[in-house]
Please model this.
Amino acid sequence: MPNLILSAAMDSFLAGEDPATVVMSLAGDRLIASLAAVRGASNAGTCYFATTRATSGTFTVKTSTGYARLVNPDNTLGAQVGTGVAGNNITLTILASGLHRAYGIISVTNGGTTRSGDITAINLSSNQLTTFSGTGLSALTSLGLDSNQLTTFSSAGLSALTTLYLYNNQLTTFSGTGLSSLTNLNLGSNQLTTFSGTGLSALTTLYLYNNQLTTFSGTGLSSLTSLTLDNNQLTTFSSTGLSSLTALEIPNNQLTTFSGTGLSALTKLYIENNNLTSILATGLNLSFSSVGGSDIGDNDLSLEALQAFVNSLAVTTTGRIKYGGNPGSTAFAAWLTTENDKDYIWTNV
Model:
């Protein structure tokens, strides 16, 4: 095994990561580099990935020509696939090998054997990928890499990407640099301990559930409308920069306080199962009513804290809020019968 891979494995062990997954990622990098070197002048516009899958599998792509070919590990080309209709799904097949191998994907014209046109969408989910390289895919708008074995991801060359699915991988870091067109990002069920919105100014939907985040800041996410952060380890949450946010899901964390300051567009709040002793939503109209509405239940909110929350809200016309499971819930239910409930439908469950 090359010294570089051995050194990286030792570094990952010291950092508490799984050395085996890091070794597989580095090995995938080397396999891709070798295949790219063999392709030489044919390399431009080729998408590469490495996989360990033992059985045959399929994935889909879309191209501007309506045709595509798989580049095999020995640089031979697979059969041409497609109907010639740009934007239609094209299904390509990875043959069973049981080995760690690198493959490529190219867009071709009818009967062509060299790259022509652009790849516009790729869905490689659930294919045991260890490495992916999209450098040069400047026309790619949608990329599905979920449910694989990725430990790293590079956004280099993906300037047109609008949708990116990376959930159910083993990522410990993520950088949005270069993803200025991205609007939909799913990073759920990884191993992220930090997240930065730098470079993601167009993002409207962000999923970060089931990670290891302890803090979150919305800085740089000025277009974000929907944010999902459940099942992390958050002790602090900063709403700075989230003026467009309409839906926030942040249950099952370790928050003790929450302020809605700056969340002027928010209509839906799920913040149950935290450790809240204080929650304020100054001026907010939590008008979301579907599926029971917003939820502040199962926290540590006293009667006084629940009263302060109500008093901070704007009057609603449709809002529903669940508040059960707090120490002050019973007394709060009685208080609501005689005081101003801001026209919300309050549910003690």
